[in-house]
Known about the structure:
Distance between the termini: 29 Å
Oligomer: single chain
Structural class: alpha/beta
Protein name: Putative WeoF
Amino acid sequence: MSCELICTGWYSSNEPRVYQTFGDESVRNQSFRSLWWQSVDTFIQPKHVLVVDSASSVKPHDNLFSSTKTTQIELLKNPGHAQNCTTHYAGWMASILVGLEFSLLNDVDFFLYVEQDALVYGKGFVEKIKQKLLQNDFVFGDGGKFAEIEQSVFAVNKKGIRKFLSALHDINYSDRVVSPEIKFMYAASLLKSSGLAGALSYNQPRLMRRLYNKLFCRVMPILKQYELLPFGYGRVRPINFADDTFYFQQGSVDEISAYKKLTGFNDMLNK
């Protein structure tokens, strides 16, 4: 089953990075793009893809890899990574906010985000997400043992988009101070006062923040208004490549190789 629209972000640069990264370096440059498109076109089959470019010096050139209709919106400057952004929103969050507004204004049934370094698998990928959206307006990935959500693939129902946007904008802490994961959980919950998010900020002493974070994750199953994807893995490891449906990001060389072997996909740039 296909979907009308997916949204994604894009940032790539040949400059040295000033923040911590994970996975093989290829997932952050154009050499990975062909594999990403094969993954998306095969298992999601979107009619349209929105790409939000954080003023990258290296462009994705998506028309080289897919005939799917693509709209690209480029920010005037790179907001930076959440670890070191100087603006209220980091580049990743900017791609989410632009994508949510784009989805809302185009009246699509639901917003579906697939991060630029994420690969998906499974013929029932979209249908399983849609089934979860029947239960709640928000569907995030399972972050595993730390009880936080995972956001490299997630979905929001049309009727939940305005609420989600409003709740995110109501949090008066930048992405550098309060992590996007915490913001998402907060915005898709019964919590009303955004000031409480300050207890989970990086401005808190480390031990205090860890304590508040544990308490937050303990009460979130009661307060949450979101569902979890019925499959793994995002950043969670290990990956079971025998699963009939899954996704993962920040793949290692071995993980990407295993995915290519499973799907038969290849890097078009190296053919």
